[in-house]
Design brief:
mainly alpha, two-stranded parallel sheet, 16 helices
Length: about 350
């Protein structure tokens, strides 16, 4: 346990480069923000590794189990987290300038399907719905009604999302009159499954392992991450981002996944550039104490989720950053965590009228 007053941040911040190679100079002219050159490099890596590897698996006679294992180990172990957070950030802040806006389709439409992301579904769910509803009961991925240290509760959460998630999101977007987002979402979802099913007739094993299975794996991972991000809720003010979200700081995950750990700040300022988040955190340390927020150091959202599923509260307490001077012992921290993960009666909440929430993008 570290006192927030003594915190030192080791997560990525922007460092101005003094020189750029010719490839970087070319792309800087196309980018909205040169600080996002990391996304260009990640896309280049994917086009040089994942895409040709997947194509190779589709060639008749090439697919075997050890190649599939290598493909999964590389994609899920090395690239998936970085890709999803690149998709996340470029949904909030378009990567390319308006005159090159067609290139913004490359990440969700061309690369996304190789990582279990059906085109437009992430944007529709995350910006079209999640940020508008802020984990309240009207949020289709809200964690409020669940006991958030319950594995059976989480599996029900996942089951509902898999079984009715597409229908529920389409219905929500229609109800809110976000018809452009709904149209793009359905076009992406339907197109993906038509192509994936068609490819089953060409090479069913390759289509299954390259496109179909990753959808279910990645949606599990994203829901686990969202559960960890929104597991500790102050039921007296559940829409307050300081107490319905958490921050995970000084962890390798932030280097790989573009400072995704600063989730409280992301909900407060969704269009803020990812390299500005650590400084924004340091500027507002007193606010975290005032609001009695939960901050972890050295673990990420998936570890938070795992510790909750295994009820390993001692591990959570070990990594807690002390923001409340009245919570200084492991026992006090555990009692605090257990209070914040209790299911919340959502029957008293009403659905807001359509159109009263704004999309938050750069």
């Amino acid at each position: 346990m570290t006192d927030i007053k003594n915190i030192t941040i080791t997560d990525p911040v922007y460092k101005e480069k003094t020189s750029y190679n010719f490839i970087e100079r070319f792309f800087i002219k196309l980018l909205n923000d040169k600080r996002d050159m990391a996304f260009i490099k990640l896309c280049g890596l994917i086009f040089c590794t994942t895409v040709p590897f997947a194509v190779y698996l589709f060639i008749p006679g090439n697919l075997n189990w050890w190649l599939v294992l290598i493909y999964y180990a590389f994609n899920f172990g090395v690239l998936t987290g970085s890709f999803i957070l690149m998709l996340h950030l470029t949904s909030h802040r378009p990567l390319f300038k308006k005159e090159y806006k067609w290139m913004n389709n490359i990440i969700p439409w061309v690369i996304g399907p190789f990582f279990g992301e059906t085109p437009e579904s992430y944007f529709a769910h995350h910006l079209g719905m999640h940020h508008a509803e802020e984990n309240m009961p009207t949020d289709l991925s809200s964690t409020m009604k669940y006991q958030r240290d319950s594995f059976s509760g989480f599996m029900h959460y996942y089951y509902v999302f898999i079984v009715s998630g597409i229908y529920d999101l389409a219905a929500y977007l229609k109800r809110k009159n976000r018809m452009k987002i709904r149209k793009d979402f359905l076009a992406g979802e339907i197109s993906f499954w038509i192509i994936a099913i068609a490819l089953l007739f060409f090479n069913w094993k390759a289509s299954l392992f390259v496109f179909v299975v990753p959808v279910f794996v990645v949606r599990f991972l994203m829901l686990a991450g969202n559960w960890g991000q929104h597991a500790f809720i102050d039921k007296s003010k559940p829409k307050n981002s300081y107490v319905n979200s958490i921050n995970c700081i000084n962890v390798g995950y932030n280097h790989k996944c573009f400072n995704d750990g600063y989730h409280i700040i992301h909900h407060l300022k969704p269009a803020m550039h990812w390299l500005e988040l650590p400084d924004e955190f340091l500027k507002n340390l007193d606010k975290y104490t005032t609001e009695n927020s939960i901050i972890f150091e050295g673990i990420d959202f998936f570890m938070v989720w795992f510790f909750l599923m295994t009820k390993n509260y001692k591990a959570l307490a070990k990594h807690m950053v002390i923001v409340n001077p009245n919570i200084t012992t492991q026992e006090q921290a555990i009692a605090f965590f257990k209070e914040r993960v209790q299911r919340i009666d959502v029957s008293g909440y009403t659905t807001p009228q359509p159109g009263n929430a704004k999309l938050q993008t750069a």
